[in-house]
Amino acid sequence: MKWKKLTVGPVQENTYIIYNNKEAIVIDPGSEGKKIIHAIESLNVKPLAVLLTHAHFDHIGAVDDVRDKYQIPLYVHKKESDWLSNTKKNGSNFFGQSITANAASHLLSDQDNALKIGSFSFEVLSTPGHSPGSISFYLKSAGAVFSGDALFAGSIGRTDLYGGNQDILLKSIHEKLMNLPEETIVLSGHGPETTIGMEMDSNPFLGGF
């Protein structure tokens, strides 16, 4: 199991292509659809689905490019299903933009604890706070969690946008992410990778956890 990180768009969002043999999953195609498609083609893999950790504008800008190119389904938490078309909720209006995506074909809920697509088996962790429907995808076989904007190297997600709540975010991180093995690689929506253990030891926002 491997992954390729592409940093895209004006706010340097991390898009991930996870691949196993000839199959792939695309997580958070945020912008620069041509760049993402070129990377997929270079890897010579077949995407099976697009997964969203949440539906903020910087994570959805290239959803339709990738989905239309490969005719694959889109998964998002049901609490943010309407964010794909609502520029106020997805935050693009706040930044003077209008970024949208077509409706998702698969809606996840807090009760969906697992997701199997092709050869990929994810644990679905509900990690709200940065946004109400934020989820993290834990790929145990790879020892990695795709945390979206919940947890960063040395920081946590902002909570001043629509639906954000810092207390809920800290609870999510503590109960869901900090319970993963310390060697788990954290692949965030922005910035460099880190590990659960490193964040336990040094993240200034997680004192007492």
Structural account:
- The protein has 209 residues and is an alpha/beta fold.
- The chain has a single domain (2-91, 104-206), classed as Ribonuclease Z/Hydroxyacylglutathione hydrolase-like (Metallo-beta-lactamase, Chain A, 4-Layer Sandwich), CATH 3.60.15.10.
- Helices cover 20% and strands 31% of the residues.
- It is built from 5 helices and 14 strands.
- It has helices at 33-43, 57-60, 63-70, 166-177, 196-202, and strands at residues 2-8, 13-20, 23-27, 46-51, 74-77, 106-108, 114-117, 120-126, 135-139, 144-148, 151-152, 155-156, 185-188, 194-195.
- The strands form 3 sheets. A 6-stranded mixed β-sheet has the order 1-2-3-4-5-6, covered by helices on one side. A 6-stranded mixed β-sheet has the order 7-8-9-10-13-14. A two-stranded antiparallel sheet has the order 11-12.
- β9 and β10 form a beta hairpin.
- α1 (33-43) packs across α3.
- It is globular.
- It starts with a strand and ends in a 7-residue tail after the last helix.
- The mean pLDDT is 97.
Number of domains: 1
Q: Give a count of the beta strands, DSSP E runs of length 2 or more.
A: 14
Indicate the overall shape: globular
Largest sheet, spatial ordering of strands:
1-2-3-4-5-6
Architecture (CATH level 2) name: 4-Layer Sandwich
Assembly type of the chains comes to single chain
